């Protein structure tokens, strides 16, 4: 039976943890039209170094475990073709649950990151659904086209993620790709299919998404290379993916998946444990517990 790791201490947090950012009306309108928004230099060099130290320490302490559980083999409920998927990236989920330094830096970032997310989506409160460190190791596989919200244990048209580049993300090492405007297509389909989303597992076939959304097969795509310290926000409805890492170096990113307040359980397990699942009731249980889904930002 394995034991919990020794948590490596990190220095006290140095604030502010991000640069100050103010969105314009044009920024918000562009996001709602295209489904994503890029912020260059969200982090200063010193802030980036702090994020890197905290996140990389937490990833190293987590060792081989995707989740925090040391003695329970939790299944992956989002992906398939694991021989392939395990070489897409090193994925460590909810580091805030095992490392207080991660929790501190995420919550402190909320006054900027959470506020941006709220303004882009036009909502008053943003909670953390989960965080993920996503590290494309050298020569890692591409990430297939997908949209996020069908996998998650709540359903919302206003879910949003931030993707923070901890290394330079380039065309060569697996930067993000978006399908601008595809969030409108998936939203229309949601309404047309009685408020449900088709879930396409993330596997080795990049084109599986088109089995559910054939109209997107001719859609234009955009590569989004970013310097370390920059970030992109994207809608949970937006189709996106990432290229292969064609280099001998790693490409690391830290992400926060966010949701509005008062989201109810929809029956999907996603990151939830079996113990949590047994306590939840579909359409009744609400994810408003700050111990499980901390508030990142709330409008005064």
Automatic annotation (TrEMBL):
Any one GO molecular-function label of the UniProt entry: oxidoreductase activity
Domain of life from the UniProt record: Eukaryota
Cofactor(s) named in the record: Fe cation
UniProt cross-references to SUPFAM superfamilies, sorted A to Z: Clavaminate synthase-like (SSF51197)
Pfam families found in the cross-reference section: PhyH
Signal sequence annotation: none
Protein name, as recorded: Phytanoyl-CoA dioxygenase
Native organism taxonomy: Eukaryota, Metazoa, Spiralia, Gnathifera, Rotifera
């Amino acid at each position: 039976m394995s034991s919990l790791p020794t948590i490596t201490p990190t220095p006290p947090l140095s604030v502010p943890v991000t640069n100050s950012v103010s969105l314009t009306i044009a920024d918000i309108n562009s996001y709602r039209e295209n489904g994503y928004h890029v912020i260059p230099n969200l982090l200063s060099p010193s802030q980036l170094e702090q994020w890197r130290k905290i996140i990389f320490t937490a990833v190293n302490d987590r060792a081989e475990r995707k989740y925090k559980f040391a003695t329970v083999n939790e299944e992956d409920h989002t992906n398939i073709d694991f021989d392939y998927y395990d070489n897409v990236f090193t994925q460590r989920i909810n580091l805030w649950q095992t490392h207080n330094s991660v929790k501190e830096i995420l919550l402190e970032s909320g006054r900027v990151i959470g506020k941006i997310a709220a303004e882009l989506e036009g909502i008053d409160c943003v909670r953390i659904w989960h965080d993920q460190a996503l590290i494309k190791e050298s020569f890692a596989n591409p990430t297939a086209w997908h949209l996020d919200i069908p996998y998650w244990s709540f359903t919302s048209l206003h879910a949003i993620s931030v993707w923070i580049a901890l290394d330079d993300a380039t065309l060569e090492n697996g930067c993000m790709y978006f399908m601008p405007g595809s969030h409108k297509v998936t939203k229309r389909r949601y309404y047309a299919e009685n408020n449900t989303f088709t879930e396409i597992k993330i596997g080795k076939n990049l084109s599986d998404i088109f089995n559910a959304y054939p109209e997107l097969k001719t859609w234009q795509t955009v590569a989004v290379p970013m310097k370390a310290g920059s970030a992109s926000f994207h809608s949970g409805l937006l189709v996106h993916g990432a290229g292969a890492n064609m280099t001998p170096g790693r490409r690391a990113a830290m992400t926060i998946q966010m949701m509005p307040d008062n989201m109810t359980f929809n029956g999907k397990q996603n990151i939830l444990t079996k113990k949590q699942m047994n306590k939840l009731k579909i359409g009744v249980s609400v994810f408003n517990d700050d111990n499980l889904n901390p508030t990142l930002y709330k409008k005064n």
